Amino acid sequence: MKAFITEFKEFIARGSVIDLAVGVIIGGAFTTIVNSLVGDVLMPLVGWIVGGKSMAAYTLPLPAIAGHSQPVQLAWGAFVQHIINFLLVALVIFLLVKGINTLQRNQSDDDTTATEPSDEVKLLTEIRDSLHR
Fold first, then answer.
1. What pLDDT sits at residue 95?
2. % helix / strand / coil in the chain, to the nearest 5?
């Protein structure tokens, strides 16, 4: 049991786990911003353009079923709103990952552009290699 607890502590203390937790928290906060942008700004504009009402109000009524007093409606307008939410969040995440990958690529390029060894180092390397033969 003690080994399990030690292993768990090491797992939690890793930077990647903490980074993941921070990412989840920021992602949740970012999602509320995107939901507000789509629900409060974009979709009212789209609704105004296509007919003057909120996209969430667009539904498709289905035929009534015998014995049920409530009609069933497919809320396709709300579905479109959720698709736009998803696409915006996916776009921003894509741009963030693309930017991070570019930064990491540039950093690794900087790290790998080592200077050529001096003539003295080349000569010493040749001497070392000839002695080990």
1. 84
2. 75, 5, 20
